[in-house]
Amino acid sequence: MRESAHVDLQFEMERIGAEKQLWSKGDCIIAAVSGGPDSMALLTALQRLAPAEQLTIIAAHVNHGFRIAESKQELDMVSEYCSKLGVVCETTVLDMPAYIEETGMNGQSASREQRYAFLHSVAEKHGAARIALAHHADDQAETVLMRMIRGTGMAGLAGIPIRRAEKNVELIRPLLRMKKLDIIRYCEEQSIPYCIDSSNNERYYFRNIARLGILPYLSQYNPQLSQSLVRIAEVAEAENEWMDAQSAEWFKQLAVISEGQCSVGCKELTKLPVALQRRLIKLILNYVSAGEDSVSFEGIETIRAAAADQASSTWKLDIGAGMRCIREYDQLRIGVIVTPAEDDYSYSVDESMSSLTVAPTDWTIHFAELPDGQSCKPASRYEACFDQSLLAFPLTVRNRRPGDRIQVLGLNGSKKVQDMFVDEKIPPSEREQYPLLFDREGRLLWIPGIRRSSHALLSEATRSIIHISLRR
């Protein structure tokens, strides 16, 4: 039977580490040590675990430069304690006030950015596989409560993850299920020095308000509130992991990936349960934006509604973070907004040319003069044959201009190119760059893949045939 609190903390950390596979034998682990009781307890517990697990523990301490005297005291204390433990200690001193003034960033966000950058640099220097952070159960409860107040979904209720990949290392939180009181008791019983950050009592930051005001007030109605919030996080984490796995499977099946964008069929998307629709859209957004979680719930719902049967078949919306969602008939496409360098293009084609690559598109046009007597039967609508003697060279390949019309073979009169694009359901995003073939007189001879004109048709009198094909 375990009698003392410090044995409990050490035992629980080792048990949870094994259960969640937070480390492997032989790992090098960077311990983020601020000097507070949580991080000092973490460093001590990891160092005591190190021989059995063949771990190498490296401490990393950041002096942010906010509280000059206190910060210097913390750095000295951490360095001295690491020396006592025989642990290598990497330190850095930052001038965060100057950095915040220069960048205009929020103080907490700026500090986190610079702190994590240092931790990653230390991990790279020592070839570490993991960075250990000292978040505990009270931090978890505060996080869940804050997210509930601000509004969140299942992923938000899961709170702080006990392990998470970031860049080329894994962030681990071995104390995440430990109470703050148990951590402090462990420090006192083991004579572990620590400092108290005076800024933790300032009610300037939302987390401090939650910890010092909101949680104590609500705990009048449920003394076990913190434990309940931690339990919510554990339940949500497991369910969230399952939902993530389901979403990843559907992403593999339905998402079509191309440079800078993903597309999915509207019918396939709307057949999924609503929860999976939202997850899949969020996964696509995260993929396109390289992990930046910047689209609101309302934005995801707008995208989901755009895929419905009753929604407009062509639709476009800038959804923020430099991304755009486009519906083109049954395809919903989400991608990075790209501004074309040039809207219009035009290429001249003489009789000696055999091929032409249309630079603004991924199309190549091939021209071939057929030998006398050879028949010409187009294999698809992306091939066409013309009586060469009736063509006025040079031909022109260009994109659509306002008012362009074609004398359609088999129809009386002419028809607008724009109307033909709509009839054939050519995606709006492709219409402005779609290649058209004209002769010297400005007659539209062919809309590849759609229709050819009634000009320069083959007949019994034809002696010279030019075969033209379009390839992607």
Features:
472 residues, alpha+beta, Uridine Diphospho-n-acetylenolpyruvylglucosamine Reductase, domain 3, Phenylalanyl-tRNA Synthetase, Chain B, domain 3, 3 domains, 22 strands
The 3D shape can be described as elongated
Instruction: Estimate the mean pLDDT confidence.
Output: 90
N-C termini distance: 73 Å
Strand order of the largest sheet: 3-2-1-4-6-5
Could you name the CATH homologous superfamily of the largest domain? HUPs
Return the domain count: 3
Radius of gyration: 33 Å
Number-wise, the strands total 22
Counting H and I runs of at least 4 residues, what is the number of helices?
Answer: 15
CATH architecture of the largest domain: 3-Layer(aba) Sandwich
Oligomeric state of the chains in view: single chain
Largest sheet: 6 strands, mixed
Question: Structural class, please?
Answer: alpha+beta
| Unreliable residue stretches | 1-7
| DSSP strand content | 15-25%
Helix content: 40-55%
The CATH topology of the largest domain is Rossmann fold
